[in-house]
């Protein structure tokens, strides 16, 4: 059995699922090293700062500087693994791992799991079901893309996340307005500008789900399929997740088979993946795939329902050992688990959520979090930045999960 005690793991910007990996590594007796800008939305959470043996303060968006700083540390204190703390750094850490001679995703194809245009190209080249699409980096190219794709369509920044500036357009005026909003947005996301390159793709109607799993020794394993609840279009903010999704067996089998094909087409060779798709009349259609842990607390839902800890799977892949060598598999704790987010698009700020404290007395509530404190301006972005709070809970049946979801409508955001 592999003994992780004393091994050193680097996590680059642990602002999402990578934070769970860092906490697990510390729990297993490993040395945790964090590379971070450590300012703004990259500021290291207090609990992670406490468990980090070393913090490398560096511009993580400058690959050359990051690689030089990490390589210098590696010479003094060898690292056993380098892992991304969020989606933005999947390709970066793959290239960094290759430079240090550590396990990682193939550098020659890794950009296809970050850049949505490259992702579409590889999936289409594999002959898999995918919407019509075209790339654009200017208003003129946007019009050409719209002519290729048609309407309705969806515009997506090629390297963003969290549904930021993802927007449906039913005509040219709406598409042009969405692109103008993107190019006029000066807010940085983890120190990065939004960028002006987008993919315009055919709008796909249908229920949205995610298939989460991992690759090990060439085998693709789908651990769970999660149903998603999205906000009103033209935006696509995720308002909640329920695991497992309520799907007929034949649809489940089709989702699993399609996911396996997508994972292989994108050359994801090890570690976890998060594959989002819509269930169209023709079958599953890829929205995007991330070669990393899912966000929004989905790993916790999956662990509760299946017993599989995807954070341990990710850590094992980074170390180059089998997931069974770490505590990645255990018994499930509940038949169903869900997370619901709350928004208040009609308010500039709020004074609290009526009924919030009473949730503490519910045995099925396993956690809750307030993202935007009372009195703080609510971003009117229509994406993950505008969500106020979330509640996580378990249920004994799909019907009970739906019923509790509906009961949360009684919570009221107070102006």
Automatic annotation (TrEMBL):
InterPro entries: ATP-dep_AA_Ligase, ATP-grasp, BL00235/CARNS1_N
Pfam families, per the entry: ATP-grasp_4, ATPgrasp_N
Keywords of this entry: ATP-binding, Ligase, Nucleotide-binding
Protein name: ATP-grasp domain-containing protein
Domain ATP-grasp: 120-319
Source organism superkingdom: Bacteria
């Amino acid at each position: 059995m592999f003994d992780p005690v004393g091994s050193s793991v680097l996590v680059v910007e642990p602002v999402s699922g990578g934070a769970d990996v860092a906490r697990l590594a510390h729990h297993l007796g490993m040395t945790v090293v964090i590379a971070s800008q450590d300012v703004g939305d990259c500021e290291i959470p207090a609990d992670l700062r406490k468990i980090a043996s070393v913090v490398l303060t560096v511009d993580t968006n400058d690959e050359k500087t990051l690689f030089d700083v990490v390589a210098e540390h590696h010479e003094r204190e060898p690292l056993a693994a380098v892992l991304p703390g969020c989606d933005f750094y999947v390709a970066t850490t793959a290239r960094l791992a290759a430079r240090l001679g550590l396990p990682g995703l193939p550098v020659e194809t890794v950009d296809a799991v970050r850049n949505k245009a490259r992702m579409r190209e590889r999936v289409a080249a594999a002959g898999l079901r995918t919407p019509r699409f075209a790339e654009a980096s200017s208003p003129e190219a946007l019009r050409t893309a719209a002519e290729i794709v048609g309407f309705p369509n969806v515009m997506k920044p090629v390297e963003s996340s969290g549904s930021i500036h993802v927007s449906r357009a039913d005509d040219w005026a709406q598409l042009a307005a969405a692109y103008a909003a993107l190019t006029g947005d000066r807010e940085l996301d983890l120190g990065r500008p939004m960028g002006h390159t987008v993919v315009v793709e055919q709008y796909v109607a249908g229920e949205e789900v995610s298939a989460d799993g991992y690759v090990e020794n060439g085998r693709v394993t789908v651990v769970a399929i999660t149903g998603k609840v999205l906000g009103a279009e033209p935006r696509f903010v995720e308002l909640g997740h329920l695991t497992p999704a309520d799907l007929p067996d034949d649809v489940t089998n089709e989702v699993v088979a399609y996911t396996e094909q997508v994972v292989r087409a994108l050359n994801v060779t090890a570690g976890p993946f998060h594959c989002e798709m819509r269930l169209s009349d023709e079958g599953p259609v890829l929205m995007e795939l991330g070669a990393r842990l899912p966000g929004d607390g989905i790993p916790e839902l999956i662990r509760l329902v299946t017993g599989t800890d995807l954070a341990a799977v990710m850590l094992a892949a980074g170390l180059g050992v089998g997931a069974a060598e770490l505590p990645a598999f255990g018994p499930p704790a509940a038949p169903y688990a869900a997370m619901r987010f709350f928004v208040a698009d009609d308010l500039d700020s709020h004074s609290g959520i009526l009924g919030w404290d009473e949730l503490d007395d519910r045995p099925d509530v396993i956690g809750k979090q307030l993202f935007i404190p009372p009195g703080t301006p609510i971003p009117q972005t229509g994406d993950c930045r505008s969500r106020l709070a979330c509640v996580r809970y378990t249920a004994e049946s799909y019907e009970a999960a739906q019923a509790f979801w509906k009961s949360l409508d009684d919570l009221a955001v107070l102006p």
